[in-house]
Amino acid sequence: MSKENTFLVRYGLNPFVSHARDEGRSVFTIRSSENGKMIRHARSLIVDSYGEATAIHVA
Prior knowledge:
The radius of gyration is 10 Å and the shape is globular. Helix 2 links the parallel strand 2 and strand 3 (55-58). It contains 2 helices and 3 strands, in the order H-E-E-H-E. It has one domain. A 3-stranded mixed beta sheet has the order 1-2-3, covered by helices on one side. It is of the alpha+beta class.
């Protein structure tokens, strides 16, 4: 399991957040059907762990 997927499981984000690599860059995708509070929480955890430059999409 990749470092990013381990992170998603550790923080319980794996049911509604996925991770992929695009040209070596991490891209996290959050399901838009999730509660707005959970979307903000997931975004905050990702930014705190991977930095502002990480691509985060809500789809």
